[in-house]
Design a protein that fits this description.
With about 325 residues, this protein is of the alpha+beta class. It is built from ten helices and twelve strands. Strands 1, 2, 3, 4, 5, 6, 7, 8, 9, 10, 11 and 12 form a twelve-stranded mixed β-sheet that branches. Helix 2 packs parallel to helix 4 and helix 4 runs antiparallel to helix 5. The chain is globular and about 75 Å long.
């Protein structure tokens, strides 16, 4: 499973590399629904930063929505900071006269929450981007390139696919639907495979790996289900064009949801040796158009594209 990935979150990368156009309507809808509280969309900071210097009215509208949402978040964080500082002061006053378990615990919790809130405020106000600003997790949004009316188009999509026609409860019932197993493309994913294909640009991916497998030790030497997070990076430093499936989910009285899943397959030897049993599939640039224009009557050709994948060597290390 691709637990997390550091992506190219700026839609302009797709424009420069592929001559793609941005679906400004979908981007505007995403930011509007978040600003209005209609959705709780998790949007990477780097994806917002693409609109920091708007070039037209539509982009200026998006920037206004981003600024409005961030101002509201800042106010909520300031209120939380005030609340926790008061809690800390109350606990410390109590401890001056009597050491109690409740006051000690309240002081610890308040201190932790103050630190966390201050970090979130600093991140919110920070202008310079860091690598983590482009990192997505299941439920996060990312730009995905698709073909629409014969043109390459970039749309914002949630990284956990809810297939059209399925109930919203599938998000909880099938939490692993941010990845689509290759051996199940004609099963669970049959509505998408051969019909709605996309490409995501990925620099680095992360996986949860058993600590025992990673260290090559007996599982008895570790706590049950103890995991570590590994970072996998192509040794050639090249960008990965990751094969995806996507869907537009609609329901009466609900906002449309664009969402996607990255296709995974058996891992290459170095990923398996590190302790993980799945790997995303980076397709070759020459196959992108064929992948984005699938023929449902010729699924064999699509499997051929997945087989004819880019094959970098994945160096790994413990994630910071």
């Amino acid at each position: 499973m691709c637990y997390s990935a550091q992506i190219q979150a700026d839609y302009r990368k797709f424009v420069r590399m592929f001559g793609a156009t941005m679906d400004i309507h979908e981007f505007a809808r995403l930011f509007f629904e978040r600003a209005e509280g209609v959705s709780k969309a998790k949007i990477p900071k780097a994806m917002e930063a693409a609109f920091a210097s708007p070039q037209n009215d539509a982009e200026r509208e998006i920037k206004t929505l981003i600024d409005r949402f961030n101002a509201e978040q800042s106010t909520k964080l300031e209120q939380e900071l005030f609340k926790q500082k008061k809690r800390l002061a109350d606990a410390e006053r109590t401890l001056l006269t009597k050491t109690t378990r409740a006051a000690t615990e309240s002081r610890r919790i308040a201190s932790d929450k103050i630190d966390a809130t201050m970090r979130r405020l600093a991140d919110l106000e920070r202008i310079d981007l860091k690598p983590r600003d482009s990192r997505i997790f299941p439920g996060s949004y990312a730009p995905v390139m698709v073909i629409e009316n014969g043109q390459r188009v970039v749309k914002p999509m949630r990284y956990q696919c809810r297939i059209a026609g399925k109930p919203a409860s599938y998000d909880v019932k099938y939490p692993g639907t941010y990845n689509a197993r290759r051996d199940n493309l004609e099963g669970f994913w049959k509505q998408c495979f051969g019909y709605t294909h996309g490409v995501m640009l990925v620099d680095v991916f992360y996986e949860n790996v058993s600590k025992a497998k990673f260290e090559g030790t007996l599982s008895e030497t570790h706590a049950r289900d103890e995991n570590v997070v590994l970072e996998f990076r192509p040794s050639n430093g090249e960008l990965m064009h990751v094969a995806c499936l996507w869907s537009r989910w609609t329901a009466p009285g609900k906002p449309d949801l664009l969402s996607f899943a990255a296709i995974t397959d058996e891992p290459p030897p170095e990923v398996a040796a590190a302790g993980h049993d799945r790997c995303i599939i980076p397709i070759k640039p020459r196959n992108i158009d064929a992948w984005l224009n699938p023929d449902a009557s010729n699924l064999a050709s699509l499997y051929t594209i997945l087989d004819d994948r880019d094959r970098p060597y994945y160096e790994h290390r413990l994630a910071a």
